[in-house]
TrEMBL record:
This is Multicomponent K+:H+ antiporter subunit G. Keywords: Membrane, Transmembrane, Transmembrane helix. Signal peptide: none annotated. Coiled coil: none annotated. It comes from the Bacteria. InterPro entries: Flavin_trans-like, PhaG_MnhG_YufB. NCBIfam families: CPA3_mnhG_phaG (TIGR01300), PRK12674.1-5 (NF009316). Pfam families: PhaG_MnhG_YufB. The chain crosses the membrane at residues 6-30, 42-61, 73-91. GO terms for molecular function: catalytic activity; sodium:proton antiporter activity.
Length: 112
């Protein structure tokens, strides 16, 4: 039987959580009706999902004897620094273009 350590379980949990967050963000990008609502899917949950995936990968491969991967650490830092800035810039550009929000009444389906 293979020797499974606590780090393997933690890496697997991070990969699972990250994939759930990334899937949720992708579905939100597909299903939400408005640009401003769609902006939250990739910037919030998908960023956390990809961050958890990269950290889980970094943890897994660091326990295999390669040491901590600087590339994956830099990817995570770059992702968490640039995603909010790019979302803010997109929202400001949409407000500058006077992009209107979709108003939804109670009981109305999301798709129009």
């Amino acid at each position: 039987m293979a020797d499974i350590s606590l780090f393997d379980w933690l890496a697997a949990a991070l990969l699972l959580i990250g994939s759930i967050f990334a899937l949720t963000g992708s579905i939100a990008l597909l299903k939400l009706p408005d640009f401003f609502m769609r902006l939250h899917g990739p910037t919030k949950s998908t960023t956390l999902g990809v961050g958890a995936l990269v950290i889980g990968s970094m943890l897994y491969f660091s326990t295999r004897g390669d040491g901590i991967s600087v590339h994956e650490l830099l990817i995570t830092i770059f992702l968490f620094m640039t995603a909010p800035v790019s979302a803010n810039m997109l929202a400001k550009a949409a407000m500058h273009q006077k992009l209107r929000r979709v108003k939804r009444t109670r009981g109305e389906p999301w798709e129009q």
